[in-house]
Amino acid sequence: MGSRLTQLTLMQGFCAETGGAIVGVGAARRPSAVRWAIAGHILIAWIVTIPAAAAIAALAYWLVGAFS
Q1: Which DSSP letter does residue 1 get?
Q2: What is the DSSP-derived secondary structure letter of residue 4?
Q3: Taking the model in full, what pTM does it have?
Q4: Alpha-carbon radius of gyration of the chain
Q5: Residues sharing a CB contact under 8 Å with residue 19, sequence separation 6 or more, in sequence order
Q6: How far is CA 33 from CA 6, 38, 48, 53, in A?
Q7: Number of C-alpha atoms within 13 angstroms, CB side, residue 52?
Q8: Which of 8, 22, 23, 64 is the most exposed place for a label (fewest CB within 10 A)?
């Protein structure tokens, strides 16, 4: 999953999958091992996902209610 973000050894990959912290495992080795621009894009996507999903759900709810 994080192959574009940072290189991981097998043990680091196991720890990242178990704890869900690929950036943390890469940064623990050395901070320059992480591609911070990609990590920033992932963070922005996480922040945008919930409001976008709520807006789409509200629109769908309104459309279904309007035509029912």
Answers
A1: -
A2: T
A3: 0.57
A4: 18
A5: 25
A6: 6, 12, 26, 33
A7: 6
A8: 64
